[in-house]
Each structure stands twice: as structure tokens, then as C-alpha cells.
Amino acid sequence: VPSGSSGEAVKIFVVKKDSSLTEESLVTFCRRQLTGYKVPKLVEIRDELQKSNGGKIMRREIPDEARGKVDNKA
């Protein structure tokens, strides 16, 4: 997603399977598993991700939606 300081920031969209999952625990996990620049700065936990009629996640829609939310906040 667009970011004022670096141009872009990593944002992840997560659907919880475990109710004990928190943004903090997810970022901590990512810090242990990923290179620093890949660790998400923003986390959005959702009930579900947008899917096509065939049941596949609409991956191309997610970045557009994230940009729209950022633009609406400005």
C-alpha cells in the first residue's frame, strides 16, 4: 500500500482460523520468518476475503481495495 515515508508499505490481510491470533503475534511470527523489509507494517484481520464465483480468492482486487482505503483516509 502507499506509504508517505518509503513510498510503499507491506500490508497483509488475514482470515483468522484461531481466535487467539492477534496482530502482534502475527507480526512477531513474521519477524522470525521473513527478511526485515518483508515484515508487514499493517495488518488487517477479516472474516473472509473476497472470492470469485469459482471460490478462488480475488488476489488482484486486494491491492486495489487497500489503496482505496488509504486514499479515503487522506
Q: Mind sketching the topology for me?
A:
Elements: E1 2-3, E2 7-8, E3 11-15, H1 23-33, E4 42-46, H2 61-73
Parallel strand pairs: 3-4
Antiparallel strand pairs: 1-2
CATH class: Alpha Beta
Number of strands: 4
Helix-strand string? EEEHEH
Q: Which word captures the global form? A: globular
Give the uncertain stretches in residue-range form. Answer: 70-74
Q: Main β-sheet: number of strands, strand sense, barrel status?
A: 2 strands, antiparallel
Kindly name the structural category.
Answer: alpha+beta
Protein name: Long-chain-fatty-acid--CoA ligase
Domain AMP-binding enzyme C-terminal: 4-56
InterPro entries: AMP-bd_C, AMP-bd_C_sf
Pfam family, one: AMP-binding_C
Structural account:
It is a single chain. The protein has 74 residues and is of the alpha+beta class. It has a single domain, classed as GMP Synthetase, Chain A, domain 3. Helices cover 32% and strands 19% of the residues. The protein contains 2 helices and 4 strands, in the order E-E-E-H-E-H. A two-stranded antiparallel ribbon has the order 1-2. A two-stranded parallel ribbon has the order 3-4. The radius of gyration is 14 Å and the shape is globular. The C terminus is likely disordered. This is Long-chain-fatty-acid--CoA ligase. Pfam families: AMP-binding_C. GO terms for molecular function: long-chain fatty acid-CoA ligase activity.
